[in-house]
């Protein structure tokens, strides 16, 4: 073979190798681009921080090439605002925050829920209070977080006893301020949810006047960004399955679950065990019945002028 022909074949081989290499790199780049990042908003207490501590969700999503990142929020309203602005695409909140988020034209959708947990919120008084019944609350000062799950509970408790919100003096305070006001006697009663409810029982022997039993559902909801939910339904299906599996583990291992929450919440094991024992165990897609009950809450908030417009909860559920 002549020198010129040899040089030609060498150049051709080098060029071919370069083209193949470029194609391989292009393929690698494409694979990397297909990696999905799931930003999850969570709070210090609940099922999601337990899932985070156990690391099982990362394992379950690995086969789908999904990376999980966790973003902590102080409460449900802030978490859903994070979902609305895109800092997270999935999170957990009680009944009330999604209603206010939807009323503000949020892009959230309901994905799943835990079963009703009516005993996980209550109207409580000090252990030595003279208040013995709901009727005794007439004209009294009651602390609550405005527009929260317990706001709805208070409405239903009063309604069941032929009283109105105007029959009591509502004092709107977040949990930490409400606890301080409750302890120093600045309010006569407090409507509150777990784990704050359990903490008041254990730490200051607060007495229960009424729980949500036979009055409210108190569902815990899992919500997602609408675009993410429509684009990645299989990812969210895996998440819901893992959440369901985790609640089953929690139900069977309540002490271990409580230990996982000790550090993030700063609460003692006995408080957390009481609180966990009142959870709803199991996570399932939103049913028509659950949607109907959430509609009741939204309608009640609209009637109290807590939201500006009447909502359609079904509009925030992907069929």
Automatic annotation (TrEMBL):
The record's listing under SUPFAM superfamilies reads: Periplasmic binding protein-like II
Kindly give the InterPro entries that the UniProt entry links to this protein: ABC_SsuA_sub-bd, Solute-binding_3/MltF_N, SsuA/THI5
Q: Which PANTHER family match?
A: ALIPHATIC SULFONATES-BINDING PROTEIN-RELATED (PTHR30024:SF42)
Q: Which UniProt keywords apply?
A: Signal, Transport
Superkingdom is Bacteria
| Role | Part of a binding-protein-dependent transport system for aliphatic sulfonates. Putative binding protein.
User: Domain named Solute-binding protein family 3/N-terminal: which ranges?
Assistant: 37-253
Q: Looking at the keywords, is DNA repair present?
A: no
- Claim: Chloroplast is one of the keywords in the record: no
Primary localisation category: periplasm
Q: Where is this chain's protein located in or outside the cell?
A: Periplasm
Q: Which NCBIfam families match?
A: SsuA_fam
Extract the CDD domains matched here. PBP2_SsuA
UniProt name for this protein: Putative aliphatic sulfonates-binding protein
Q: Please give the Pfam families that the UniProt record associates with this protein.
A: NMT1
Q: Where, if anywhere, are coiled coils annotated?
A: none
Instruction: Name a GO CC annotation attached to this entry.
Output: membrane
Q: Tell me which family the UniProt entry assigns to this protein.
A: Belongs to the bacterial solute-binding protein SsuA/TauA family.
